């Protein structure tokens, strides 16, 4: 079901899931109820949506792999230098999956999503990975090509207009031989017209196996395939050498803390929800979170200890995941495979902060019966911009739409954001919107100091007569305030004291939930604030 939701770009109706999976409706209801309890999906009416927390499964693979953390700064720097998109990919059997994308902001976007699966023969990294294939790997690839000649199972790429043939197969074999001889590979419009890329392998040890492939991606209006080779290949090779030095010199990290009390949590959830909660499904998924930074390979005993599950339960889960291709074995140890990224990562890797916040705002609005909003600072730092909002059903309510800009110094949202920013963001002249507006810079600076200390801002009729607003911060993984969450109302509905005692706890709890999703989503991806 998670894979079907992933293929559907993150959203399907319950009846759509029933049709896509072939499962009975009662089974679909129980599975989605279990996934919702785990925070992996959410309901919107009769539609099921993937939730950012599901990315913790892919994050377990990415942190165990270590490559994104070690290599992505070099990829980002190369993209800035060349002003072209740069990607990192790993092999997934006879396909490739992206683990990092450094994209350029252009109307003609050339980026795939992190976790997207592409057929090896239609990419630049594919021939490089194929240089390491065994005879069995080549046979599996030929069988897949025969069964799916138009690449319909690869939803991240346009299907072929015609079925592949023996000549196409030989072309890929020839490209692989050339990649082995030259140490680089080209994609000359194999995925779709106009798209070109050049790739160089990143090896785990000097002369060893290919750990990842770095690619520069462009389009034919900027570079021809030949032009990529002559103008950009030298710089790509230089960047790859820096990546390899980083990779070879890196020491194994100390294992981070494994998940705790997972078995107790699933047991408690089963008691609370009864037959609607499939405990075996929940416990099986928790097994994937046992892996992570400093824990790339685990024995059965270590998985059992990390999750608190019985060895028999952990063993059944691992055997199932090995059959599904999510887990591989090496002797007595188990490790995650790139296929874990197929569980929701591609659509969720494009999630923005407003999309993360929207369902949480809806829940908050339903609880406090007031409109709620999320805002960020403008580039100048002098205004706030509303990026998400849920209005309450009242005859008299605050009428603000997404995209609205207001002066930061006269709003609760703005003061929360300014309290964490430099004082240079304050405008030279502070206009009085009402008789209550703070227009003295020293007084405003003192107010911002108080906001920073108390963790919320209350602005009472400073922007408009009768308008009272209270806001709290939303922080990123580093602790920096990147957005603010508020509710606003007519001053007659709640006193300032009631705003603090009744609303601040609700706002803070909601901000914490937004932060949890943001931190999960932003661990290995860029989450746009707007």
Summarize the SSE layout with pairings.
Blueprint: H1 2-7, E1 11-13, H2 14-21, H3 25-37, E2 41-44, E3 47-50, H4 55-65, H5 67-82, E4 85-92, E5 95-102, E6 117-119, H6 125-130, H7 135-147, H8 166-182, E7 185-188, E8 195-203, E9 210-219, H9 225-249, H10 262-273, H11 279-288, E10 298-299, H12 300-307, H13 311-324, E11 327-330, E12 333-336, H14 345-348, H15 353-368, E13 372-377, E14 383-390, E15 405-407, H16 412-419, H17 441-454, E16 457-460, E17 467-475, E18 481-490, H18 496-521
Antiparallel strand pairs: 1-3, 2-3, 4-5, 4-9, 5-6, 7-8, 8-9, 10-12, 11-12, 13-14, 13-18, 14-15, 16-17, 17-18
Concise synopsis of the structure shown:
The chain is α+β, with helices and mostly antiparallel strands and 530 residues long. It has helices spanning 2-7, 14-21, 25-37, 55-65, 67-82, 125-130, 135-147, 166-182, 225-249, 262-273, 279-288, 300-307, 311-324, 345-348, 353-368, 412-419, 441-454, 496-521; strands spanning 11-13, 41-44, 47-50, 85-92, 95-102, 117-119, 185-188, 195-203, 210-219, 298-299, 327-330, 333-336, 372-377, 383-390, 405-407, 457-460, 467-475, 481-490.
